[in-house]
Prior knowledge:
This protein is mainly alpha-helical. The chain has a single domain (2-123), classed as 3-Layer(aba) Sandwich (Rossmann fold). It has 6 helices and 5 strands; from the N terminus they run E-H-H-E-H-H-E-H-H-E-E. The strands form 2 sheets. Strands 1-4-5 form a 3-stranded parallel sheet. It has a two-stranded parallel ribbon with strand order 2-3. Helix 3 runs antiparallel to helix 4 and helix 5 (69-85) packs across helix 6 (91-103). The protein starts with a strand and ends with a strand.
Amino acid sequence: xxxxxxxxxxxxxxxxxxxxxxxxxxxxxxxxxxxxxxxxxxxxxxxxxxxxxxxxxxxxxxxxxxxxxxxxxxxxxxxxxxxxxxxxxxxxxxxxxxxxxxxxxxxxxxxxxxxxxxxxxxxxx
Length: 125
């Protein structure tokens, strides 16, 4: 399962719904894009040091997904599909969706706009 930024934040904050889903997952993956968004958020937090420590420990049980040449093909396809149906989503989320397609993994996210991405399974909590 791939974690979106809001899922990573919810996990760090011990949200019971997110924790329940993550605990049942066979594997956990975090896109490098999500890491950037999350690190940006904790850099501005008064609890930044605690969140940074938590993140380093959590990353020990996760796979970090990098953007590759293959990812760029998925990105371009998704971007065009969304444009054709008139349903744009944020650029970072297109990259996250591309990684989901590339790795054939569901996405844990509260962002319903992922539901318009063909072939992507979003899991909410």
